[in-house]
Description:
Elements: H1 6-38, H2 41-44, H3 59-67
Amino acid sequence: MRKIDISEKISNTAYIPIAIIAAIFMIIPVYILFITSFAVPSDILKPHPDFFITRFTLDHWKDKYMASF
């Protein structure tokens, strides 16, 4: 059985929380972009936008879809 160095044990223990925090920091901007695409313009341009959709619209997606034809 091999002995585990204390620095190796710390790095193995810290890996999961650091990976979770990094994943959260990478997912939040994508979530904000996705939510913004479904929000009405007045909700997007508020000084403190909501983190969740309060008013939902598909107009942005419809405009992009129709512009491709």
